[in-house]
Amino acid sequence: MNDSTQAEAGKKNWWQRLTGGLQRTSSSISSAISDLITRGPLAPERIVEIEETLIRADLGLDFAARIATTIGEGRYQNLAEVQTVLAAEVEKVLAPVAKPLMVAGARPFVILVVGVNGSGKTTTIGKLAARFRAEGKSVMLAAGDTFRAAAIEQLKIWGTRSGAPVIARAQGSDPAGLAFDALTRAREAGTDVLLVDTAGRLQNRAELMDELEKIVRVMKKVDAQAPHAVLLVLDATVGQNALSQVEIFQKIAGVTGLVMTKLDGTARGGILVALAAKFGLPVHFIGVGEGIDDLAPFAANDFARAIVGGQ
């Protein structure tokens, strides 16, 4: 199998995982719209039903209202026509935020990974480490979630898998001090990428947010530009709550980009559209499973087609 054939197979495999992961969202949208279309001309009250369907999928109030109006003004004969229109509108919102994570201009390039408990931060770090290693970059991991022994152990396992050294301390250690040490050691070693894990912080816990601010402040003592990227990992299943998470973490840690995980476990994958419309932050990666290949760069066209059930 040559390189182009392998690349094509990989793309097809990812498309299958993406459409499978978003099936609950696309099915809920498609079945509702299909039901409305088969009942004849789209009367005003049935346009409201389409709007409510899109809102339930967490696509956002403004987007849902605009698309429902667009569909209502058209003379669509079947589901496929509506899916085409809907996919185009979703892509229009997502295309400006579908940006790759550019790792360049600093050595080490420091990526601080933040988010609430259970969002998939540590797993995402492991998958990113494996991706960077596959690209030939040297990687170091910092186990900054010192509140949970399990998180430290989990990161060590990912370090072994990806061939990346892990800087860790005992549970309960000062995470800011660990981040300082990790950055110092990464600079001395000439490491390309330093990935820093953090404790899962609920955005309404002031003391934990203060600790996150301290981590950022302390790293700047080693490198005034660090961290060079702050990735917020969001769990798609939380729906509208993701909006408040972005707002708070952006204020506290200066979020530069998003990673959306667990799109395979929800019928609310549309929250990514609402996030893009409200914040305009780059979406670098999305995840549709636990496997190492289930995290991939975000592509607006693929996501738009998958979420509405297009082919």
Shape: elongated
Helix content: 40-55%
Mean pLDDT: 88
Alpha-carbon Rg, integer? 21 Å
Question: Proportion of β residues?
Answer: 5-15%
Describe the largest sheet.
8 strands, mixed
Task: Record the strand order, biggest sheet.
Answer: 3-2-4-1-5-6-7-8
Provide a concise account of the structure shown.
This protein has 311 residues and is of the alpha/beta class. Helices cover 54% and strands 12% of the residues.
Describe this structure in words.
- The chain is an alpha/beta fold.
- The protein is built from 12 helices and 8 strands.
- An 8-stranded mixed beta sheet has the order 3-2-4-1-5-6-7-8, with helices on both faces.
- α7 (149-162) links the parallel β2 and β3.
- α10 crosses α11.
Tell me the layout of helices and strands:
Blueprint lengths: L2 H19 L1 H16 L5 H13 L4 H13 L5 H16 L14 E6 L6 H14 L4 E4 L6 H14 L3 E2 L7 H15 L3 E4 L9 H17 L6 E7 L5 H13 L3 E5 L9 H9 L3 E5 L7 E3 L2 H9 L3
Parallel strand pairs: 1-4, 1-5, 2-3, 2-4, 5-6, 6-7
Antiparallel strand pairs: 7-8
Helix pairs in contact: 2-3, 3-4, 5-12, 6-7, 8-9, 10-11
Overview features:
8 strands, alpha/beta
